[in-house]
Amino acid sequence: MKEVLMPIAYPTKGSVGNTGLWRTLKPVINYEKCTKCFICWMYCPEAAILAEDKPVILYDFCKGCGICANECPVKAINMIKEV
Amino acid sequence: MGIVNILGKKEILMPGNPSCPGCGLALGLRYALKALGENTILIVPACCTSIVLGPYPKSSVGVPVFNIAFAAAASTAAGMSEALDLMGRDDINVVVWAGDGGTVDIGIQALSGAAERNNNIIYICYDNEAYMNTGIQRSGSTPRHAWTTTTVLGKKEPKKFLPLIVASHNVPYVATASIAYPQDFIQKLKKASSIKGFKYIHLHTPCPPGWRFPSDKTVEVARLAVLTGVWILFEIENGRLRLTGPSRNLVDKRKRLPIEKYISIQGRFKHISKEELEKIKEDVDKLWHTLIQYSSKENIEKQ
Q: Which residue in A81, B23, B63, B213 could disulfide with B19, CB within 3.0 to 4.6 Å?
């Protein structure tokens, strides 16, 4: 063997695929109620909420844990059953 | 956008990682990497995080990671920081990210050695209070009367409180943190990365499957732990203890929320009797007493 092969793992979004498939309840933001405080973004364990000019949920990766809906101070996030 | 600017927009922990829904450690790791930045090397012993980091050839984090055996995390980090020092690289954070089993039980010997040598590393223990990765077995960090698969009637012994054990090594910085108070945690991490020497941070991370509560309550449980006084936020800098965050106002017992609020939300305390609840309250009071004594050590010296 002339060279040493290095098994290197590279950073990738979705290292175990689209984790959104795990979801049973889907968070939906009501932008009329949303005050853009970004507390949902702060407490998302998955980093599946983007902080643009308003919070945007990445449904490909959101596992539907519901922390965002539980922590929202104005209750602007509803958990809706997946179909 | 205030919070976004304080925490920073860059996500080093990528979405789509294999953590459970509502995982406390994933939230903690996300904050830690936000605070420490990309110039970080993670050393991870066997724990939940070794799974969360993703299967080869993919990785869930944008920093180099060294997976190492349970007992060797702190000594590996010590060697790595010495090597970086010889190479003249002082801009890299060498960070151990270990679970409570790998810190409180199996890793304590290497941790104690590194603390005694005052190696330039940051040791973060995320405490989910049992061996969650292998199926909720009790660890030294499991609190009294908590159910685990190996303590079916509740653990008989109290929680081993590691931050004070590490503090007695006379290290420059020891702190506790909670995922419910990210600003406090990030401030402590930034302070730790500016100090040279051994830094230890003990992070409280609730675990929905292990503590038996719904996945949307993770942050709520972590917050209740602080507000009821079960988990105390403080930092010890050069031997001086300072309470931080909401814990500053909780020295007076009457200002704390009733412990029942924290206990009743979790299924792992479902079985406890009135006497056992009193025992838990006693443990909390004892810990507060110890910490208050610790912080007044200086006052005693003055007299």
A: B23
- Whether the per-residue pLDDT at B297 is higher than 90: the answer is no
Average pLDDT over residues B179-189: 95
**What integer pLDDT is reported at residue B303 of this predicted model?**
45
| Rounded Cα–Cα distance for residues A16 and A59 (Å) | 15
Chain A CA closest to residue B11: A47
Q: Please answer whether residues B115 and B163 qualify as being in contact, where contact means their C-beta atoms are separated by less than 8 angstroms.
A: no
CATH code for the domain defined by A25-81: 3.30.70.20
Q: For residue B26, which of A57, A23, A69, A47 has the smallest C-alpha distance?
A: A47
Domains of chain B in start order, with CATH, are 3-299 (3.40.50.970)
pTM flag (> 0.90): yes
The answer to whether A12 contacts chain B (CB < 8 Å) is yes
Q: Read off φ and ψ for residue B211, nearest 5 degrees.
A: -95, 0
* Contact assignment for A70 to B58 by CB distance below 8 Å: no
Query: Cα separation of B103 and B94, whole Å?
Result: 16
Over residues A46-73, the mean pLDDT reads 93
Mutate to test the interface with B, among A5, A8, A10, A15 (most CBs of B within 10 A): A15
- Provide the Cα torsion B272, B221, B17, A11; round to 10°: -130
CB pairs under 8 A between A and B: 120
* Contacts with A58 from chain B: Cβ below 8 Å: 15
ipTM, interface predicted TM-score of the complex: 0.92
Task: Give me the pLDDT at residue B197, please.
Answer: 94
Contact A11 B14 (CB under 8 A): yes
Is B125 a residue whose pLDDT tops 60?
yes
